[in-house]
Amino acid sequence: MPYNQRMSGDCIEGIGAGTRLCAVLGCPVRHSASPAMHNAAFAELGLDWRYLAAEVAPADLRAAILGAKAMRFIGLNLTVPHKTSALEMLDVVEENARLLGAVNTVVFETPGPDGQWVPLGGLPENPVAEIRSHGHNTDAASFVRSLKEEFQWPDLRGATILLLGAGGAARAAALRLAEEGVGSLFIVNRTMEKAARLMAEIAVRFPSVIPAFMPESADLIINATSLGLKPDDPLPISLDWLKFSRPKRAYDMIYRPAETAFLRAAKAAGCQTANGLGMLLYQGAAALELWSLRPAPIEIMRAALRKNIYA
After folding, report:
1. 119 vs 133: CA distance, rounded Å
2. Which is the catalytic residue, given 69, 83, 267, 307?
């Protein structure tokens, strides 16, 4: 295939010696639509950048981050199961990400002409200078933005929420929901000790929010587990609970498949449903703006995601 020939899917023409790289690290990561979204955005912005997906085992995460730093990558995204463990592997972590207990975006930075740290993506060339890794969390705000948009639900105050999971994404979502002023937050996790620790933290930091276990019903149920990525995964919640409790809304952070078994069951039970495409879109847009210091072309990114996931 000629060097400059355009290819279908996630690959975009014109990879050369000056092309700069970003990547998402996860395990598994083959389902990721982030390359399609970001490569479309880079093309729209006229950036000679490419975005890759790399499957990295948990034991290799530190080496992968250091390797990307040594190769002067623009930045990284982190997905399951790396968002929490990466906190102790980075040179600097933004205070909000530290409080949320999860990192999903890494910006590689270098001292600028005035001595202040600036993103490598904000400079015309890769510098031969000191580089540091700076961790951020763009998940939490993007999750809430997606919820409000998908369900036309501008005010979450007083809502009863059932959250399934207590990992990095779930923790960030729980704390942001508490910050939004929800009334009750119920957390269910395979390891109940982990859920209990998160609920105890919420009780201390947000005393107005009532943390507990299973509710009789809910305004919203959220799947923040990885159950649903594989066709033979079990449901993350009892089918009987869905049928008899009939929560008003069901949100799955998974976006591929576009409709998981959980969302199908919730829809059959009468719930309004949405998947994680909006969360992916807005966290990706925020990451791109951190890397490039330029406004993200959100509608271009949205169209690329929809084509990649729904085509």
Report:
1. 10
2. 83
